[in-house]
Amino acid sequence: MWRYLLAGLVVVLLAAAGWLMFHGEARSDAAVRSDVAPAAMPLAQTQEGEEAPVVLPEAPERSREQKRFDRYDKDRDAKITRDEYLTSRVKAFAKLDLNGDRQLSFDEWSAKTAKRFADADADRSGALTAPEFATTKPKRRARSACACLAAAARDDD
C-alpha cells in the first residue's frame, strides 16, 4: 500500500515541477545580459553618451545538409563534381576488388559473406545449425539517449 502512496506523491511532485517549468517566471535575454559583470561585456557609446553593451554576433550553426555537402566537396569550390561524388563508392569498390583487375567477380563480391559463413560453421559441416546461424547476427551499436546516460552507466561499473 505504501508503494501506491509513494507513487502518487511522485506523480504529484512531477506535475508540480512541470507546472513550475512552464508557468514560472522566465527572465528575458536582456535581463540575463544585464546580470553579466560590466567588465566582462564590451561597451559602446550611444548618441546620448551613455555606455551600452555591444551585442556580439553569433556564428550560425551549419545544417546537417551543409555538413554533408562539405564532406563531399573535397576541393572546397562550392561544387561537387562527379569524381567527388563517387569517391566513397570507388573506395568501397577497391576494397572488394581483391585482384585489382577493376572487375568485380561474384567471388570477390561475396568474399565477406563467404568468410562470415565459414567462421560461423564451427563444425565445418557445410551447413549452419540454429546456434551457428545465431552467431551471424549483425552486431548493432547501442545508442544511448544522451552522453550523460552512457557516462552514468560507466560510473556504476
From TrEMBL:
<dbReference type="GO" id="GO:0016301">
    <property type="term" value="F:kinase activity"/>
</dbReference>
<feature type="region of interest" description="Disordered">
    <location>
        <begin position="43"/>
        <end position="73"/>
    </location>
</feature>
<keyword id="KW-0418">Kinase</keyword>
<dbReference type="InterPro" id="IPR011992">
    <property type="entry name" value="EF-hand-dom_pair"/>
</dbReference>
<dbReference type="Pfam" id="PF13202">
    <property type="entry name" value="EF-hand_5"/>
</dbReference>
<dbReference type="InterPro" id="IPR002048">
    <property type="entry name" value="EF_hand_dom"/>
</dbReference>
<dbReference type="InterPro" id="IPR018247">
    <property type="entry name" value="EF_Hand_1_Ca_BS"/>
</dbReference>
<feature type="compositionally biased region" description="Basic and acidic residues">
    <location>
        <begin position="59"/>
        <end position="73"/>
    </location>
</feature>
<protein>
    <submittedName>
        <fullName>Histidine kinase</fullName>
    </submittedName>
</protein>
<feature type="domain" description="EF-hand">
    <location>
        <begin position="60"/>
        <end position="95"/>
    </location>
</feature>
<keyword id="KW-0808">Transferase</keyword>
